[in-house]
Amino acid sequence: MTFEIKSKTAKAVLGLNGAMLNSLKKDGIEYLWQGDPEYWANQAPVCFPIVGVLFDNKGVAFGKECNMKRHGVARISPFEVFERHANSITFIQRSSEETKKAFPFDYELKIKYTIVGDTVTNEYIVTNTGDGKLPFAIGGHPAFNCPLCEGETFEDYKVVFDKTMTKRVLRPDHITGLIDTNVRFDALDNSDTLAMSHDLFEEKDSMIFDNIESKCATLIGKCGRGVKIEYQDMANLLIWSAVGEPDFIAIEPWTGISTCLDETEVIENKRGMTILEPDETAEFKFKITMI
Asked: What is the pLDDT of residues 267-283, one digit of tens each?
């Protein structure tokens, strides 16, 4: 089941399955990757209560054993519609016996999408409904069509940040998804612009801008179309595309990052984890603007 929200200039389609974006359109142009099993069948999953992977999909959180595959349980568990308006919709997922088999904690996750003009705000609202501490990380994983205009190529695009970038990036292992924090890679050398190339992703996985100072990144092509991502609430930004030269770029604002080799299996001690006390709520959001 899908739901449409719209403004005077643009519209978004949201799916109940995964409570994720299925379409972003402006001027008849589809901005969101529509999925292709040959490369990556997904579109914009929400990562919760982990982003990336655990060691062998296993961990321990406040003494409780967890068994979660990549990006956690939210994207593969049922949501309901909590509230709906012409330009916004809120989905809700409550912990269940099924989610507790993988992540034995009580929580309530609301995902709200609001469209104003050409901008869609993605908002995550997490509440601890249990009687103990709740550890989590959360993030978006939207992928965008690249190129957007006829006659363009993938290499005609670039990501432009709102600040000069001087820090070398982390890159997870292609197979395990784990990160060696002792090894960093050049991406931008005192520049605010990263030119897109399929070669960037053929040998290495995503580029992880951890503890990023920039809070706005714009994917833009030579025809002037693209997307601007604003992520003031998120500490990290990932840029990724799949191997095999698909026509998409994912720009992913995350509160945490995937498991690092210098960490243990203890989930609450991982980088970027948020810890909520009983009845406490945390909110995070980022914006996607179609250009």
From this structure: 999 999 999 999 999 99
